[in-house]
Fold this sequence. Notes:
Blueprint: H1 2-18, H2 24-36, H3 38-57, H4 62-77
Helix pairs in contact: 1-2, 1-3, 1-4, 2-3
Amino acid sequence: MRLRIDCARVGRILHAHLAGEVSEADARWVTAHLEACLHCGMDADLHRRISSSLARRGAVRREAVTRLIAFGESLVEDPRPRKGTGTP
Length: 88
């Protein structure tokens, strides 16, 4: 149960963490969690890849970014396994 609480907390601040916008203490905690939790580590990697891809494309419509953030947040809010993946 503790892992789910930690995963939810990481999900809420992951974007800010990857942007370097969290406290040093939170950064250490999130980094440790990402190294220990395969699911959250994969989510962080996906976030980095998407951000990198968007950065290479140049200007991105704000509405697209808003939808992407909302989608990422929806993944954190629903801890049930995703259909077809076998993972939460």
